[in-house]
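Appendix C reproduces, verbatim, an entry submitted by the partner laboratory led by Prof. M.T., so that reviewers can inspect both the input and the predicted structure.
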Amino acid sequence: MNLILFGPPAAGKGTQAKRLVEEKGMVQLSTGDMLRAAIASGSELGLKVKDVLARGDLVTDEIVIALIEDRLTEAEAAGGAIFDGFPRTVAQAEALDEMLASRGVQIDAVVRLKVDDHALTERIAKRFAEQGRPDDNPESFKVRLEAYNRNTAPLLPYYEAQGKLTEADGMGSIESVAKAIDEALA
């Protein structure tokens, strides 16, 4: 099974993906984690990514798609992938569909975590204070949230037209969100 957890930054996609990894053995393909790993490596790519994320901008499709493609074999061996933070644009969604189709698989479900922008701003400020992740500073978060609303939210009709979109209240408890996701996957 291939699943997309869909929602803005700080909506809880990573938390739910980690739960699904533990419970179902799927592989989490988190572009945020992959990009942070590239930064930590100190590679040329990592330095480029660090600069882009510090501004709150989105990394190019080419870089993100290559990172995802590198991990697909691992996901297939585990029985499926949880795409967390990808795709972010219709072009990325189309590239993902083509990439998966060439492997004889597809996206099986898309679960949108519906959240409130104001509550997300508070959530990110708390996470930044606790964890200090550079891409979580409140100012770049606002830029990321605007980019999500402008570029990523238009993906909803794309997946709705495919009959793959379901929604869950992302403002509920971790357990209630988990239950809604599990129901969508059943």
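The mean pLDDT is 88. Additional entries are available on request from the coordinating office.
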